[in-house]
Specification:
It is built from 2 helices and 2 strands, in the order αββα. By secondary structure, the chain is of the alpha+beta class.
Length: about 55
């Protein structure tokens, strides 16, 4: 697996998975659950695109 090797070099790595894996502890971020739900949240800039009334 390539991601743990990258993480060992100090590069931030995020894991998106429905369950933890043997490599989870080597990553800086773990988003547990469906990637289709968690990826948009992780990539959001924190600003809502909708106007509030």
């Amino acid at each position: 697996m390539f991601a743990p090797q990258v993480a060992k070099r100090g590069v931030p790595v995020a894991e998106f998975n429905i369950e933890e894996t043997p490599a989870t502890s080597s990553f800086g971020f773990m988003f547990k659950g469906p990637a289709g739900e968690n990826l948009p949240i992780a990539l959001a800039d924190g600003h809502s695109q909708q106007a509030t009334v």
